[in-house]
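Title: Prediction job returns without error message
Component: structure pipeline
Severity: low
Priority: P3
Assignee: unassigned

Description:
Job completed but the reporter wants confirmation the result is attached to the right record. Sequence as submitted:
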Amino acid sequence: MELLKELLGEELAKQVTDKLGDKKLMLDDGKYIPKTRVDEMVKKAQDERDSAHKQLEEVTAKVKEFEAAAGENETLKKKAQELVADNERIKKEADERLAA
């Protein structure tokens, strides 16, 4: 309520405080972000994450098809397995960044 005293003076601030009673008063200092805006930002981040997951799943499926088509070629199979592992690592890192 110190800010209220500075803005309104002690007498008027006391009247306002008495009138408010137990109610809370929030003054906008320019740092306040409405919950609706935070919710929008979270939803956008989740949508982007879900889109990235879908893309990774599609790439992983294609790599697995490639791996199956590689047949006995061990070098190609190994490379395909590395790509699948990389995709899983990228997915995990993206989830961790979003959770932070």
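Comment from assignee: result matches the submitted record. The CA atoms of residues 2 and 13 lie 9 Å apart.
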